[in-house]
Amino acid sequence: MEDLWVVENQPAEFICQFSRPVKARWRKDGQLLQPDGRRVVVEQDWSVARLYINRVSNDDMGTYSCEAEGTCGVASLHVEAKPINIVQAMENVETFDGGEALFECALSRPESKDCHWLLDGKPVKESPKAEIVSFESGRRHLLLLKDLHDKDSCTVTFKAGTATTSAQLTVK
Predict the structure, then answer these.
(1) Cα-Cα-Cα-Cα dihedral of 140, 146, 149, 150, to 10°?
(2) Of 41, 50, 40, residue with least CA distance to 18
(3) CA 44/CA 32 separation, integer angstroms
(4) What pLDDT score was predicted for residue 162?
(5) Which of 10, 34, 41, 48 stands the most exposed, by the fewest C-beta atoms within 10 Å?
(6) Cα distance from N-terminal residue to C-terminal residue, the chain
(7) Per-residue pLDDT tens over the stretch 56-80
(8) Can you point out the beta strands (E) in 112-171?
(9) DSSP states of 64-103 as a string?
(10) Residue 2 CB contacts under 8 Å (≥ 6 apart), including other chains
(11) Which of 116, 16, 107 is nearest to 65 (CA)?
């Protein structure tokens, strides 16, 4: 068996070959694995044991072993986070003195932990003048800026992981 590095939501397959036909048992982190026949499938064909995991997640990360008659093959499954992409970029906004500006963007997958709004490179904090909202489980993100004045004109940036989108705020 060989260690695997798999991007989340992709399949993973471990294959263990023995010198003769045996009945193999699979374990994850020392615990006997309970295949469900759909997402986690175990197959055996004579001397070849196969473990297939459809759509891996972080919960699947660990050390897998295939045991049969005193012989044991061991390998690790490493799950890499699927990259985040901006699927709807922000647009420039013009408003008037005392007005509001709404910035919105959408991501390729939900993310709510590693997200940051910036005004001219400085982090935005929630306040009576700034509302931050995410919805659709973290796929869509909004920033509402209120009571704006000409000195508030700036570059607005949203970052999620390594993905970034920016737009200009102009207050007249």
Answers:
(1) 10
(2) 50
(3) 16
(4) 86
(5) 34
(6) 65
(7) 998 999 999 999 988 999 999 999 9
(8) 115-119, 122-123, 130-135, 140-145, 154-160, 163-171
(9) EEEEETTEEEEEEEEEEPPPP-EEE----EEE-TT--EEE
(10) 75
(11) 16
pLDDT value at 112 more than 90? no
What stretch of H or E contains 7? strand 4-7
HSE value, Cβ hemisphere, 13 Å, CA-based, for 109: 12
Distance CA 26, CA 53 (A): 12
- Sequence-ordered list of residues with C-beta below 8 angstroms from that of 70, at least 6 positions apart, any chain: none
Looking at this protein, which amino acid is placed at residue 22? V
Has residue 114 got a pLDDT over 90?
Answer: no
pTM of the predicted model as reported, rounded to 2 decimal places: 0.64
Side chain identity, residue 166: S
The Cα–Cα gap between 120 and 151 comes to 12
